[in-house]
């Protein structure tokens, strides 16, 4: 059992008669309680078995012991199986830095980043032939991790929040507004002006007076299970034809991820993810299969929708209305103020009655509308998201004071500068290079062959 979640608690009341868990013969759901640290004079914090830093520890592991299980110890590279994909452990899951919540989409991303790491090793090996395995690994990890952060900042975020101002803002976070020649002029600006001109990367860290930590609120607004598709139908990357292979959530999660990733051409699987749209982050679109998830090792069948709400309550995250007040947003006076969708309002009333103050954060943010044009999630969620987008860069020395050629090498900085996720896909899966470059952002649905 996970040492960080050794105590258990049950849902406070039996499952409703129409709960999907009843069909599994289960009247109560048992989940492990998160262990917390109590601090004098400041709020409790909650432990995690993985790091909160933007360090790609889900790929590399969070400690040296985990690293040792993942490294090939040859030329700095990560282990891959004979077919070029991640090795599989005795539990049927890919051997990765963190694979507790495994599904085919995560397997795809982990495989891509491990392939990218190994290609960066090749680049460094050619540039620095005298480097040993550890030097190659450490520098490739730095570059790959920073590239992942760049991809998330300037590509994934603008794809989810498709607004030109937001796109410019995220590019500014990374690169700044000033032309490159201005970077040779000594920085005489205040920190906040310098961040706008030069970007956060390579600048001074800004801790805003407190040690860095991602807030519970950030975790809460990042509950994106509704993005999962009910079914994945694999298509051929050459002509977009269906291959006849379709997988539902029960089939593409946990051990089933191997059936998807290794039961098809890897290029076809990645192409399928590249051309498909995700689910919408709206009320009433939570994947039905996630409400009765049979997770290996769990003490019971899990209703992930209920757990998402339960975790917020367990950790003292404010309900929707109070959350908005604390972010200086106008609270809802009635259920009708939350959404202009009558069906969503009716669903809220069915659960919460007219008590608008009792609406949980997740329920309120999924229901919330209208939304800013092009935004995949609500304005309330955006308030937290945009704060964290800068904080997770400006509080990390590897993205500020140590983002230098002395640490990364100039070759490493150039690799990051010249790369986007389209380039990563084109390098790691060359047959998908044209498909990935059919759009200006690899996280937008790719253009399919005519």
From TrEMBL:
Binding site for heme b: 225
4Fe-4S is among the record's keywords: no
UniProt keyword annotations, A-Z: Dioxygenase, Heme, Iron, Metal-binding, Oxidoreductase, Plant defense
Xref: InterPro entries: Haem_peroxidase_animal, Haem_peroxidase_sf, Haem_peroxidase_sf_animal, Oxylipin_biosynth_metab
GO terms (BP aspect): defense response; fatty acid metabolic process; response to oxidative stress
Region Disordered, annotated ranges: 1-27
Pfam families per the UniProt record, alphabetical: An_peroxidase
GO cellular component: cytoplasm
GO terms of molecular function: heme binding; metal ion binding; oxidoreductase activity, acting on single donors with incorporation of molecular oxygen, incorporation of two atoms of oxygen; peroxidase activity; prostaglandin-endoperoxide synthase activity
Regions of compositional bias (Low complexity) in chain numbering: 1-12
Superkingdom assignment: Eukaryota
Protein name per the record: Peroxidase
Record lineage: Eukaryota, Fungi, Dikarya, Basidiomycota, Agaricomycotina
